[in-house]
């Protein structure tokens, strides 16, 4: 099914900390002006009222719709549309049946999922995955990637897994929750303590020997690291390097289990030129067996798509002809296993919206 030719109209929501942004999507594109409503609320009823207002206005603008589909923070039972206790939205307590509420209100199917999952699905359909396969095809390669691992660097460390354009959600709506992996630098903590906005600020202040409240924002720390702004450049570089080291350990475990390219999104992904060299180097580092023999950290090799030489190496094939035993026939064998690591081609917000749209189209087809 080509979602970019589908005629169904899907309403979506970007539930940010500052604004609730409502949109209508058809054929993978916006078909009406987005509606933005301030997100701050004091009660659950006030929040639900804002959803009623936003989706209601869109329906008046575009006419009939086929479904509502959007990303929302967890913990949650996403298939049932039930949202659990949320730290960032205190009005959600004890489990809120948000999906069933909206379904009753607007009389259309409602699909809710994790933003990391929908980001990955969007990139698999219209972002990094088709870009990779398109570039390989230009080189005459018959290799086609069907898996995609998505991660987001932002307020937290999000993740998602897609196989053949289908989300791998898990039996408990907890598939791809990479943020719960153990932190190699702080073993009693999760990786999110080192892979997040708060981590960048914490490490910078520790290295610069200043108080946390004095910390610049991550965008400023990035500019300091690049030498474009005054500050402790060594501390700034170190803060992104620590993020890359810890994220790479979690990714290496994920790639080992799932075996697919990696797409990175989120607010901190803009610092990819500092993050990726360390991250990819860590993915490709060696380990030692107990008898001292060196082995690769992963069975596959990772390539930084934003480094020209790495991109060229990734796209080039290492095919060789080998003889089938007992015959004179030959078969092509590619001995080097590769995965690519790159930044979102769509932008995080657009990828999430496309993923939400595609998820609804897929679910409506079943």
Key features of this structure:
6-stranded mixed beta sheet; 366 residues; Nucleotidyltransferase, domain 5
Number of strands: 19
N-end to C-end Cα span: 12 Å
| CATH uppermost class of the largest domain | Alpha Beta
Main pleated-sheet profile: 6 strands, mixed
Principal-axis shape equals: globular
Instruction: Estimate the mean pLDDT confidence.
Output: 94
Q: What is the succession of H and E elements?
A: EEEEHEEEEHEHHEEEHHHEHEEEHEEEH
- Give the CATH topology of the largest domain: Nucleotidyltransferase, domain 5
Please tell me how large the radius of gyration is: 22 Å
* Domain count: 2
Counting helices, strands and paired strands, the structural category is alpha/beta
Strand content: 15-25%
- Give the helix tally: 10
Please give the CATH architecture of the largest domain.
2-Layer Sandwich
Structure description:
With 366 residues, this protein is an alpha/beta fold. The protein has 2 domains: 3-113, Nucleotidyltransferase, domain 5 (2-Layer Sandwich); 119-346, Nucleotidyltransferase, domain 5 (2-Layer Sandwich). Helix content is 37%, strand content 22%. It has helices at residues 44-62, 98-106, 115-126, 128-138, 197-208, 218-225, 233-258, 272-283, 308-315, 348-364, and strands at residues 9-15, 19-26, 29-30, 35-38, 67-71, 76-77, 82-83, 96-97, 110-113, 147-153, 157-163, 166-167, 262-265, 286-288, 294-296, 301-304, 319-323, 330-334, 338-343. The strands form 5 sheets. Strands 1, 2, 3, 4, 5 and 9 form a 6-stranded mixed beta sheet that branches. It has a 6-stranded mixed beta sheet with strand order 12-11-10-13-19-16, with helices on both faces. β1 and β2 (19-26) form a beta hairpin. α6 packs across α7 (233-258). The mean pLDDT is 94.
């Amino acid at each position: 099914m080509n979602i970019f030719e589908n005629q169904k109209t899907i309403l979506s929501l970007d539930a940010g900390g500052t604004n609730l942004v409502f949109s209508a999507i058809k054929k993978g594109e916006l078909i009406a002006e987005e509606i933005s409503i301030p997100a701050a609320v004091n009660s659950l009823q006030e929040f639900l009222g804002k959803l009623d207002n936003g989706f209601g206005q869109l329906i008046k603008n575009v006419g009939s719709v086929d479904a509502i589909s959007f990303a929302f923070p967890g913990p949650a039972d996403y298939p049932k549309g039930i949202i659990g206790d949320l730290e960032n939205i205190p009005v959600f307590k004890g489990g809120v049946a948000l999906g069933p509420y909206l379904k009753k209100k607007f009389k259309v199917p409602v699909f809710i999922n994790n933003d990391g999952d929908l980001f990955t699905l969007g990139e698999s359909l219209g972002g990094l995955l088709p870009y990779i396969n398109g570039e390989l095809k230009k080189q005459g390669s018959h290799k086609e990637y069907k898996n995609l691992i998505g991660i987001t660097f932002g307020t937290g460390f999000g993740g998602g897994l897609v196989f053949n354009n289908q989300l791998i959600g898990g039996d408990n709506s907890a598939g791809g929750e990479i943020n719960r992996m153990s932190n190699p630098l702080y073993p009693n903590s999760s990786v999110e303590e080192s892979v997040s906005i708060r981590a960048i600020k914490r490490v910078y202040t520790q290295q610069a020997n200043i108080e946390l409240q004095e910390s610049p924002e991550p965008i400023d720390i990035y500019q300091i690291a690049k030498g474009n702004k005054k500050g402790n450049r060594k501390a700034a570089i170190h803060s992104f390097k620590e993020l890359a080291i810890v994220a790479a350990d979690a990714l290496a475990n994920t790639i080992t289990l799932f075996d697919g390219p990696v797409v990175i999104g989120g607010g901190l992904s803009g610092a990819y030129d500092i993050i990726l060299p360390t991250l990819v180097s860590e993915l490709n580092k060696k380990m030692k067996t107990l008898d001292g023999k060196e082995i690769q950290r992963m069975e596959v090799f990772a390539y930084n798509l934003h480094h020209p030489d790495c991109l060229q190496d990734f796209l080039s094939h290492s095919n060789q002809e080998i003889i089938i035993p007992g015959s004179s026939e030959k078969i092509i064998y590619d001995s080097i296993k590769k995965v690519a690591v790159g930044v979102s081609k769509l932008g995080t917000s657009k990828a999430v919206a496309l993923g939400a749209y595609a998820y609804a189209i897929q679910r409506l087809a079943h």
